[in-house]
Amino acid sequence: MDQLHPSQKQRDAEAQKVWDAAAVVPDPEVPCVNVAELGILRNVEMIDGEAVAYVTPTYTGCPAVLAIELAIEVALREAGFEPRIERVISPAWTTDWISDEGREKLRAYGIAPPVAGSNSKLALFGETIVACPQCESENTEKLSEFGSTACKAQYRCKDCLEPFDYFKCI
């Protein structure tokens, strides 16, 4: 499989229909974003009559990966395709793959999106400023390294006093 991010690919009409069917599947742990916006749907193509969807889990231990793969398979079947799901683990998923629309949807849902540049040492080791998704204050504090899922940390805004999840940089 080609290693380009889906936004960099050109698809023929049939592959675009496959993409459109698979892309709308919501993430089961963060249902405000779909698998395309989250960047875990890497690519699709038609191979010998099968609609092949390439999926990269957010991390290898993600408990939702099987549910995501099954949901994509169902969506493709319902769209009239014979599906096959291929899990791609290299290159590893990064929060940099979350689309701008996905980041805005996270914020509107009450989850602070990850800061851009996941390869930054500051982002990787938690020395980043996390703005509150409710009031946009940067006067926040980390309460726990883990939030509602392992890929999120729990924060609290010191101004509006609201707790919120922060989607960690990976």
UniProtKB/TrEMBL annotation:
Residues 16-78 form the MIP18 family-like domain. Coiled coil: none annotated. Residues 124-168 form the PaaD zinc beta ribbon domain. Pfam families: FeS_assembly_P, Zn_ribbon_PaaD. SUPFAM superfamilies: Fe-S cluster assembly (FSCA) domain-like. It comes from the Bacteria. This is Phenylacetic acid degradation protein.
